[in-house]
Batch of 2 targets.
Target 1
Amino acid sequence: MPVALCAMSHSPLMGRNDPDQEVIDAVDAAFDHARRFIADFAPDLIVIFAPDHYNGVFYDLLPPFCIGAAAQSVGDYGTEAGPLDVDRDAAHTITREVLDSGIDAAFSERMHVDHGFAQALQLLVGSITAVPTVPIFINSVAEPLGPISRVRLLGEAVGRAANKLGRRVLFVGSGGLSHDPPIPQFTTSPEQVRERLIDGRNPSDAEREVRERRVIAAGRDFAAGTATIQPLNPHWDQHLLEILASGELEQIDTWTNDWFVEQAGHSSHEVRTWIAAYAALHANGPYQVTSSFYREIPEWIAGFGITTALTRSSNHMK
Ligand SMILES: O=C(O)/C=C/c1cccc(O)c1O
Ligand SMILES: [Fe+2]
């Protein structure tokens, strides 16, 4: 069965702190293209890799990976709230293959997800329930993080499982590229923030609003050149896009987590979701990137990319 991929940056500042119209038009056109690609492919299952931003997963129990057999979107930044349409059987099949491959992923019967999942699904297929989905959380925010090679191996195991499903599977990676939004780091945070990072589920509306306003203000300051957050790194982003397009994903195994941060900011770890999605595609055969969009968008605190890809055999089976 054919498989396909769409990897995209997300940013909750889209629509809240927008760049010039020319940039918005270019992003809209790239998303239109991705939506047409997905509609042509007509997936009957989406496997989405995405991070969490201290909305669903906390330091009280912090797995590197978690596969959801059921999931609930928290609706942060105005994204769609409520249950995703999770394909439970597919989630079980994928989890078994991942565990059999020696990757110790966590498993959830009630995974809580945030804009990392919801915004991507809404932008690509219209809603969090439009297509049966298996959500796979990849910790990309809360250190300590394991080596990047484990993410590739996770993706490969998921790709093998998808192959066994005999379905038209679309792999989605949501996150990255270079960016450093003001998400607190546990080790450098005051006690009261640490408490929220350990067990911050179900904040009040007022608490959520304070947090979101702070990030929106950071986006304004960043675009104005007055924020202290790390600059975007378009060279690093382009280099990563080239490696992903080449299919030589093992090259990334040598990159250390500290190097990711130095080069591209703390949240560049979100490219783990892209690496997993590309590795899943690669496990189904050689692939070809069919479209690639990139812009630096400081207003959204994002090196913003959108790519689509197909295995070569899927291309013939379309
Ligand atoms: O406030 C958050 O939870 C995250 C905000 C953010 C901002 C910009 C790019 C991203 O990937 C984000 O998650
Ligand atoms: Fe993010």
Target 2
Amino acid sequence: MESEGRNGKKLILVPGPFQGHLTPMLQLATILKSKGFSITIAHTHFNSPDSSAHPDFTFLCIPDGLSEEEVRNPDLMSIVQRLNVNCESSFRECLTRGTNHMEPVDKICCIIYDAVVFFSEAVARDLKVPSIALHTSSAATTIVRPILLQLKAQGHIPIPDSMLQALVPLHQPLRFKDLPLSNFGSLDYFLELVVLASKIRSSSAIIFNTIHCLEESPLAQLHQHYQVPIFPIGPLHKLAPTSAVSLLQEDTGCIPWLDKQTHNSVIYVSLGSIAHLDQDQLSEMAWGLANSKQPFLWVIRPGSIPGSEWIESMDEEFKECVKDRACIVKWAPQKKVLAHEAVGGFWSHCGWNSTLESIGEGVPIICQPCFGDQNVNARYLTHEWKVGLELEGEIERGTIERAVRTLMKKKEGEEMRQRVLDLKHKCDVSIVDGGSSCHYLSELVELLRSF
Ligand SMILES: O=c1ccn([C@@H]2O[C@H](COP(=O)(O)OP(=O)(O)O[C@H]3O[C@H](CO)[C@@H](O)[C@H](O)[C@H]3O)[C@@H](O)[C@H]2O)c(=O)[nH]1
């Protein structure tokens, strides 16, 4: 049984079962452990994290009732929907039954849950345990999501072409086309999920993996919107740099390859853990990179190109053309890659973790958002913080080649690099004594200790 934390307080943390959600929750767990709390990670069977990487935590598997078929071909929206239905009673049972590795309910001081697995809040309320939500996307995304519901009510979803380029009132620099619509599953369920995941219900506070200096205005709007404390305590990966939580095996062979490249010469390419490409897009990306003449490190996730295996789908001519300046892996140790001095640019889908990790290492970005909050993040990167280049329209080799050259070789790219280094410095300042994230973290810890 997990020994009591130094301060005698026990926390249950419930992550969302996707890479971009598990990562920040495990980082938060590491941070709170260092503050003296004992930690139980209550996770679904689906995409369960590797418990051996975190010997300090207790792991509790919530039976999730998903069928083998649902797990084999996961459809994100329906998985989220099913988990929120299936897991409420099994989670409650896990907590109340007091299994060998579980503490009695009255010893739990708080349940911290990812906002997408809101069944956790229902259980916390039922058991009269305080709860706090963690939002894993940006504050800007959270504050604009309700606009989608207004648009739907006005019959403006799908958003008409005539509106797409217009700025969203009170939410500049966002245009209507940047609003965080999902590509997955039914629109109605997505909108329902937006409502359910943004409700605070009985929870006592909301944690954001963001930084005051990056999102001052959206955070101010959130403070007005929600009647509970908001804790922007990011970037979590900087506060918990050793917290490993990869669902896929990392290929560390790319690090010795990077060691041989010159300073700021490599463009790192990754579209995160969810986005998919088709064969034509893969080919355009490949030739855009090849024609840019820049060395590149490219993550091609297994299964991300439906119907083909990753490397077999690249043709011989391409392999020959890039053989001295390309490294292609299935999954990279991304934080180490971005911190490597050879990496001078990141071509990213702009998931929120990748966005923070790139800013945190002072690496400018070519932005290719695929869906949802990535559109919001890309717009902030290109038009608010001005540290990213927008790759708009179809994926096309000429556009890619030009974007890579601009970022890596031209004055415009160098200016972005300077600005992102300034932002990195501000982020570094936020997490040390006197910094905003450090301050909010102390307040969060104080609240948790008061429960
Ligand atoms: O080869 C790789 C590629 C990625 N990563 C890591 O995987 C995470 C990816 O997270 P993120 O950049 O946020 O992308 P997604 O996995 O696509 O995340 C989902 O969840 C995020 C948080 O809610 C959202 O912002 C995204 O839009 C959504 O797709 C990051 O920590 C990366 O460091 C690796 O370690 N190795």
